[in-house]
Amino acid sequence: MKPVRHFLRLQDLSRAELQGLLSRAIELKRMLRAGEAYTPFAQRTLAMIFEKSSTRTRVSFETGMAQFGGHALFLSPRDTQLGRGESIEDTARVLSRMVDLIMIRTFSHAGLEAFASASRVPVINGLSDNHHPCQLLADLMTAQELWGGLQGRKVAFIGDGANNMARSWMEAAQILDFELRIGAPEGFHPSSFAQQENGTHTRIYTDARAAVNGVDMIVTDVWTSMGQEAEDGERHARFASFQVNAQLLAQARPGAVFMHCLPAHRGEEVTAEVIDGAHSLVWEEAENRLHAQKALMEFLAGFGPLAKQGV
Ligand code: CP
Ligand code: NVA
What we know:
With about 300 residues, the chain is α/β, with parallel strands linked by helices. About 40% of the residues lie in helices and about 15% in strands. The chain starts with 14 loop residues before the first helix and ends with a helix. It has 2 domains: about 10-130 and about 290-300, Aspartate/ornithine carbamoyltransferase (Rossmann fold, 3-Layer(aba) Sandwich), CATH 3.40.50.1370; about 135-285, 3-Layer(aba) Sandwich (Rossmann fold), CATH 3.40.50. The chain is globular, with a radius of gyration of 19 Å. The strands form 2 sheets. It has a 5-stranded parallel β-sheet with strand order 7-6-5-8-9. Helix 1 (about 15-35) packs across helix 12 (about 280-300), helix 3 (about 90-95) crosses helix 4 and helix 5 (about 135-145) crosses helix 6 (about 165-175). Bound molecules: phosphoric acid mono(formamide)ester and norvaline. The site of phosphoric acid mono(formamide)ester (CP) has 8 residues, from helix 2.
């Protein structure tokens, strides 16, 4: 029996698989726009466990599964036995005997790994405290559509360099071979473990202006991630000089673009003139969650040209 493929972090894909998946996502987007029906998941089910809030992740997975002819189940700890103490491993064992794929958004990455190791079907990380790989699929797809890829480009991630998005960008830079600069205050840099594991293509800056100097793309994210609400006041004070505004954008190369995974807080990590301006790709990124995750589900389930080619 073939081992089950999970997608818990970006580096679970090889470079060839990632590139193939991004191309396939662009093809699935074209097919959807052309009105071509494609329903490889008829009679199949995706379970989605959300231990944290979500708009994009829930809607994109649920819509993608419906377009594929399958069904998606929304499960929250509030109304499943998970919330009453049933172990994540037991939940994984039970769900994976009924459904074909499982997506989970949770806090602990170690808990997610424990869940995956008890599952008989592929598990997808819909965001953990350490990684947000599905967002990177959409962001990389957006860059692929714009530039044909990020090879040879410079990307600056400004804000919380220790959060899940920064970590997934570090993995992307390493797999796809582009330069990532992280501009973050002291105390909010990637952990030494993350730097050791995925830091070969990442340079750390404590000054936002130096980090964005001449880059092709500026990326940011909320200053306070889900689960960190108690630190909100301190984080606002520490990140004040890391706002992505027109002055900061002017330091990047002319024609540079802006990305944000959303939800955004205008006036905090980004100003309205940047996120709502001509350089912003945020709505393309959000839409591409749908197409990129359809390519991912197809690949993990073993359907579609990518799985058949065995890249
Ligand atoms: N970017 C993202 O994951 O959005 P949601 O939290 O709305 O799913
Ligand atoms: N870093 C953010 C991403 C939200 C999509 C969080 O974890 O809340």
